[in-house]
Design a protein that fits this description.
With about 400 residues, the chain is an alpha+beta fold. The protein has three helices and 22 strands. The protein has helices at about 1-20, 40-65, 95-105, and strands spanning about 130, 155-160, 165, 180-185, 195-205, 210-220, 225-230, 240, 255-260, 270, 280-285, 290, 300-305, 310, 315-320, 325-335, 335-345, 350-355, 365-375, 380-385, 385-390, 400-405. Helix 1 (about 1-20) packs parallel to helix 2.
Length: about 400
């Protein structure tokens, strides 16, 4: 019986040592009392067991005291189906002093990159899908997780139940996203033309949206209204990268649309504005004779129509964008008399090409006009009086123009 108790006591000591990751040296008095009565030996064994329990209690108190000062994170990847014990962020702990101590003592996590993604590959086409529902901003801390335990490698794209989603750009309440201090993106997401950018990451705690300034991450915008992230280990536990549930609508945007939000809460798809370059030019002629009053000359022969703003069937130029334009128009008078051509802008006669010829002479005249127009403005030429002539081999009656610069009006 005594031998069995001693064996059990020895097993307890070994288990305690393994559990606390420490070596325990303990001498049993009962091992040297083989000549004493059985009842006395049992009493000593029980006393030794009580001493061992006391030692275990003291060690547990020391471990709890250390956990309040130093961050504690599991070393193995987290299984979200297993509930983790809270060891770092608890509501009863001190605030700024504890945070500063964590940030000063935490190790610098480098080398989290992946050589595969440093070889010039586009991360928009080479990423890992990160689809974990507990990262959503509407998920509470039923199971507390910590992204510091993750082995982050390369680029990631966030999903929520198979649908694309993105990080929040606004502070997230604590105890959300399946963790104590949710991590959100400070500085906003980039545009496609920005390429890969570096953004700060903040963690909310104790009514301070950026109490925890975690390590910055890299972000890239991709065609198709999604983003890829190069996540790194946060500075401490328990922190986790969030996925904004409000951005699920962005995954339904078309290629010609962008996902926008004014308050970073309500998101919507909006059609992209068509960027028009200053590349609008046209040149047309009338290969025939014109006599008397013609309300609008229809220039049938079009040589240049860059931007397709001139309509050869109507003779009207319609400004495709707001900006500064320059126009020119000409006439060739024959048979004497007065000939007038007017440039008309939205019904207003703004410039004239005037010829006054005596006798059988023929004289030509070219007029120019520069102005600022709003998008949709109509411009054409009217033949008010006189006689003009041209043929297929000459460009005597012409009308043309160019967009010099795009400008808001």
């Amino acid at each position: 019986m005594v031998a069995l108790c001693i064996q059990l006591l020895t097993l307890l000591v070994v288990c305690a040592a393994a559990n606390e990751n420490k070596y325990i040296t303990y001498t049993f008095k009962a091992w040297n009392m083989g000549d004493k009565p059985l009842q006395e030996q049992l009493a000593i064994v029980y006393k030794e067991m009580e001493n061992l329990k006391h030692e275990q209690a003291v060690m547990k108190q020391k471990q709890d005291a250390m956990s309040q000062v130093l961050p504690h994170c599991p070393q193995k990847p987290l299984d979200t189906d297993v509930e983790l014990n809270v060891t770092s962020l608890q509501s009863g702990q001190s605030g700024n002093h504890l945070v500063n101590k964590w940030l000063s003592e935490v190790e610098d996590d480098e080398g989290s990159g992946d050589d595969e993604f440093d070889a010039g590959l586009d991360p928009c086409n080479h990423y890992k899908a990160l689809d974990q529902a507990w990262r959503a901003t509407n998920y509470t801390t039923k199971r507390v997780v910590c992204d510091r335990s993750m082995k982050w490698r390369g680029w990631y794209r966030l999903f929520y139940r198979g649908k694309t989603i993105q990080m929040p750009e606004k502070c997230v309440k604590k105890e959300m996203c399946g963790t104590h201090s949710p991590l959100w993106l400070a500085g906003g997401h980039p545009r496609i033309r920005d390429g890969i950018v570096t953004r700060k990451v903040c963690g909310n705690w104790k009514n301070n949206c950026c109490l925890f300034k975690s390590h910055p991450i890299q972000v890239k915008a991709c065609r198709g209204n999604y983003y890829v992230y190069r996540f790194v280990k946060p500075v401490a536990c328990h922190m986790a990268y969030c996925a904004d549930i409000n951005t699920l609508v962005c995954g339904r945007c078309r290629k010609s649309e962008s996902c926008i939000s004014r308050d970073k809460i309500t998101w919507m798809c909006r059609r992209n504005k068509r960027r028009v370059k200053a590349n609008v030019h046209f040149f047309a002629s009338y290969p025939g004779r014109i006599s008397g009053k013609v309300s609008r000359i229809v220039y049938r022969k079009v040589y240049v129509n860059q931007g397709r703003a001139f309509n050869s069937r109507t003779g009207i130029f319609r400004a495709p964008v707001s900006g500064v334009y320059q126009f020119f128009f000409s006439s060739q008078t024959w048979g004497g008399g007065v000939t007038d051509l007017w440039l008309v802008v939205n019904g207003y006669w703004v410039a004239v090409s005037h010829n006054n010829v005596k006798g059988p002479n023929s004289v030509g005249n070219l007029s120019t006009y520069m102005t600022t127009l709003r998008k949709g403005t109509r411009v054409y030429v009217t033949h008010n009086r006189g006689r003009s002539w041209a043929n297929s081999a000459s460009n005597n009656i012409v009308f043309g123009g160019s967009l010099l610069m795009v400008r808001k009006v």
